[in-house]
Amino acid sequence: xxxxxxxxxxxxxxxxFLFGGAVGLRDGGWVGDGLRAAxxxxxxxxxxxxxxxxxxxxxLARYALAAEPLARRLDERQLARVHEVARGVxxxxxxxxxxxxxxxxxxxxxxxxxxxxxDPAQDADEVVxxxxxxxxxxxxxxxxxxxxxxxxxxxxxxxxxxxxLMWTAARVAAGPDPVERHAAAWAQxxxxxxxxxxxxxxxxxxxxxxxxxxxxxRAWVPRxxxxxxxxxxxxxxxxxxHLVGEDGVPACLxxxxxxxxxxxxxxxxxxxxxxxxxxxxxxxxxxxxxxxxxxxxxTWVQHICALLVHGTPDLPAPLxxxxxxxxxxGEPRDAVVARLDAQPGRxxxxxxxxxxxxxxxxxxxxxxxxxxxxxxxxxxxxQGANLDRARIRELTGARxxxxxxxxxxxLTGWIAADLDPAEALDSLPGVLHHLADAWARRDRPDVTLVxxxxxxxDREREMRRLAARLGLDGVDPGVWPALVEAAGFASMRAAAxxxxxxxxxxxxxxxxxxxxxxxxxGAEALPAAAVARYQAGAAExxxxxxxxxxxx
Length: 552
Prior knowledge:
With 552 residues, the chain is an alpha/beta fold. It contains 29 helices and ten strands. It has two domains: 6-262, no CATH class; 275-550, 3-Layer(aba) Sandwich (Rossmann fold). The protein has helices at 33-41, 51-56, 60-64, 70-73, 76-88, 101-115, 124-134, 146-154, 158-173, 176-187, 192-204, 206-228, 249-255, 298-310, 319-322, 333-341, 373-384, 389-396, 407-416, 428-440, 452-457, 459-469, 480-486, 489-494, 496-499, 510-513, 521-525, 528-541, 544-550, and strands spanning 6-11, 14-21, 42-47, 139-141, 232-239, 261-262, 288-291, 348-351, 365-370, 447-451. Strand 1 (6-11) and strand 2 (14-21) form a beta hairpin. The longest helix is centred in the middle third of the chain and has 23 residues, at 206-228.
């Protein structure tokens, strides 16, 4: 993963971004392009509460003071535990005697974080609020003004208020390490720590769980529906525990018929492509998104998915029409989206954007094709000679690259190039970033990885595996032999006019696009020393289990 999770729920002309923040962060290095773009495009920011106004409210003292001493609200064991925790974070227990339990919980938490050196200004909600302020966004609050926020605590049921204090005291007693582990996982897009905390809160403090999360999460649904009824974008900022579990805000929205997609963590742009063309596209249940790097079997896997979805070797239209390349800048985005919208049922959509640059919609399935990077680089080299650069420049404005040297020299330079993956996705760092991101998501039910070598070794087996992953087990058994035959290289080369990805007429020879279709070309083109340099470079860019899978 490449950053904290960001969700988006959309209707035509309107989007609401949904972001769950964390505390205990040391800096704002987790802020990515996708988050900046989402805040920058929004017309309003919604937050949970105005903490500064609450802290400065002259009415705080009235709400904070208890009608009876803390010792009467807690049993002996609870009181001893609270006093022990207070002393551990430098608070004199005597100063807590006349305060409401919820206030004591807040003081303990603040003292622990202060003692650990946590700067509240680095909390995710404050950082995002700073981005919103810089963009001139007005701010609205879930709990209204300071008075409404304080009143929500004042109305707590006595048992729930004590439960809040004891839950908070247990977290404070654990110290800052769990908070910092939570923050580190959150910054990488890993919600497993938040999910475990939500499950524990539900199990051990069910009434508190209902008040703190469930009731508030459900109340967000009509607010978000109202935001979607207005044109433009809005940004909703909550704590990350609100976004996980069966009663999280995403789950509540899905139950209301508004399933959110994971918004892209970053934007990828080149002279030919722009991943922002995906933003605002509405996917359907069962849609298939084929995400690959160039020459990793994109057209092959697209064609296989289209054959499985349509259940016939005779596709109803050319592959580029059925399965358009959404990120490509050579065709107006609105025309591509209109072509997709006109298709009935499930669609197959092509992209060369890594999954961290796509809106991950729970209604869709994401298929990532992979190939030995050296073999893909050889294919990429040869494809360069088959591209009409003048036509590409006419369509996209991209300048033609310099003339390429002999293949061994070119491959050696490709191996050695130290490039930013976001700026050069077909470089070795770019290829391995794309694949490592997908590899990290391989256990998700909506992500399937397909290896080029497996398709070569047993095409029918891989097609049946893919059909099962896509929920297409009902393909007519009598049609299977024809589907498998249609997915072979000889059949695809013979149907090049309908299958080659040639939007705008950029290929000199469509049949030549299906050049070889084998493996091992990279090693054949290089001396052993260059292959060894490749292996050393790849080892620095990707985890060993991914490389073992790729290099079979």
